Amino acid sequence: MKQSDVVKMILAEKWQQYPLHSSATAYAPSNIALCKYWGKRNQELNLPLTSSLSISLREKGAHTQLLINDSQDCIQLNGQVLDNAMPFSQKLLRFVNLFRVRGQPYLTMNIHTNIPIAAGLASSACGFAAIAKALNQLFGWQLSARDLSILARLGSGSASRSLWQGFVEWHAGVREDGMDSFAEDLPTAWPELCVGLVMINHQEKALSSREAMQRTVMTSALYSAWPQKVSTDLSLLKRAIVEKDFLHLGKVTESNALTMHATMLSAWPPITYCLPETLTAMQQVWRMRDEGIAVYFTQDAGPNIKLLFLENDIASIRQNFPTIEIICNKQALNMPATTSSNIIPNPP
Length: 348
Ligand code: PMV
Prior knowledge:
Blueprint: H1 3-11, E1 23-35, E2 40-42, E3 47-48, E4 52-69, E5 74-77, E6 80-81, H2 87-97, E7 106-113, H3 123-139, H4 145-155, E8 167-170, E9 183-185, E10 193-198, H5 209-219, H6 226-243, H7 246-265, H8 276-290, E11 296-299, E12 305-310, H9 314-320, E13 325-328
Parallel strand pairs: 5-7
Antiparallel strand pairs: 1-4, 2-3, 4-7, 4-8, 5-6, 8-9, 10-12, 10-13, 11-12
Helix pairs in contact: 3-4, 6-7
The chain binds (3R)-3-hydroxy-3-methyl-5-(phosphonooxy)pentanoic acid.
The site of (3R)-3-hydroxy-3-methyl-5-(phosphonooxy)pentanoic acid has 13 residues, from helix 3 and helix 5.
């Protein structure tokens, strides 16, 4: 089954329709997995071997504007026009081309992100989710969030989780066509929960997560333990979220990320996204815990780490990580936000 077959299934009679509008805009937040997606059962459709669970990063994400134009496709990233032959542009054009049929116009795509691209901060997740939402507007498809999640997954697996704020679960599904592999948001809000971004390196990663996860699945002796670990962690995390049990949420999240990185380290050739500063930051977190501060970390396919902590601990977190960017969930419920220059306000 090809990506285009999935698109035809979802769009049905709407496929081949001409865009309804001449422009459209959409926003999607970035998301950080508490229980990771690591390994595909289908490379073409980005179908995962296991389910995963994430938290969205509110206004850290991608704003995308699509405009119809007559001459050629044009991609602008943060105000800069990109060469269409670049790997980033090619990936984007391949995705957009899934929805275009002959005779349809060219597009100008203006993408604004406030997170570094491909540095393990889920830039592709928010990027593809925002494009899928903007295409839905442009063509007037009126697709459900579930269908948009399936379409966004075709661009990048973790993009399936970037259609919502809050906690989101991506169900692995079992079907070959992936129609049961979509994400949905969990009903629980946790306003006191904060995510902190500790930037260690803004640079693009040398090895894509696609390549790294495939190599891990194929060569790591530890990978066979991963599906069971995910299944246990998912139920523990869901219970911790419902019970607002932060210590369990933090412990399971950190252990899940470290296990994922252990599978990579045992792949061949071995993979690590850690820099010396990544390990220093992890040790700093462990030291803080020894001192009684409830803080935990997670790490994706990049050297940067993300901290999880509760609002009450913001001051000590800042003392230990002065450059940290903090995303709080409080305003999501229209509660007064803790004021600080580095706390990012939530979108209206
Ligand atoms: O969606 P991708 O192909 O960028 O892979 C994401 C992989 C991780 O970020 C490491 C884990 C996850 O679940 O987001």
